[in-house]
Amino acid sequence: MDSLRAIEAQVLEGGEPITPEQALQITTLPDEELLTLVDLAHRVRLRYCGDAVEVESLISAKTGGCPEDCAFCSQAARFQSPIENHALLPPEQVLASAKSSEELGASQFCIVVAVRGPDERLLDNVIEGVEAIRRETSLDVHCSLGILTREQARKLARAGVARYNHNMETARSYFPQIVTTHSWDERAATCRLVQEEGMELCSGGIFGMGESWQQRVEFASELRELGPVEVPLNFLNPRPGTPLGDRPLLPPREAIRICALFRLFFPHETVRYSGGRELVLRDLQALGLLAGVNGLVIGNYLTTTGRPPEDDLRMLDDLGMPRAQGHRPASVPLP
Ligand code: SF4
Q1: Mutation test of ligand 1: which of 60, 62, 69, 73 has the most ligand atoms closer than 8 Å to its C-beta?
Q2: What was the pLDDT predicted at 303?
């Protein structure tokens, strides 16, 4: 309890993130103090981010057939996962999906493709979709296209992509257990490029892959160094055919503690629920929104289905949390 009081003074009053040492103390708080921790994380979120929740929808514009070997991912070509692969969708189809997402209540739309990094044809095709969405909807457009060159990052920024998602996935020390076809440093380089070229960085990870609490704390500290404005929290949904297909689900209270921990590491940023929350948190999903989470992905994920968007929007209404409005980059004129 004393440690929480010191953390409250530092994070809530001072707006300063917790230190790794304080984070490790949080990981050992007894379960009876979990609600005290949740309450602190919620007050930090309200003070620095307000009560609104960012609502995003995403499209898997190219599914499966990826040459990389991320152990959690059913889209890696080398794993025998039962998914429906599809080639890159044409811009008209991406636009149609964006329009329905806007009707459902999203203010952000993310175009995701399963590749190591985009080739020029893919990039041009995605940019065509981005420009159409910016012309015909009021959505903020985000992209997640893998590892970028500087020139590619520049093109996306110029096309008006507000935010680029590139998850670092896990701690640097654990990354080689999860991915061997590219390195943590290669990913970090794209995170830096994205910001240098004028896009906001969205970068988070997946929990429940066998990493320790110490590695979660290490991961949060490493992410802070990269300076994302948004941190997506995914909870492993073990996909059949992948190397992590037999891993047990994270216990829901452990997932809630992760939400609170990341809020205290990122007092001013968006902490977003991403894949796996329905499966892992079950009836505790609303509690995460009271433990510092202030962003949601609604609708389906890349290869798994979410719950109906109406259920999520009702949850926000029930919690008295309004939906955030979009904020397009003012410097990029509409196409
Ligand atoms: S996580 Fe991304 S890069 Fe890794 S295998 Fe899946 S689609 Fe490919």
Answers
A1: 73
A2: 65
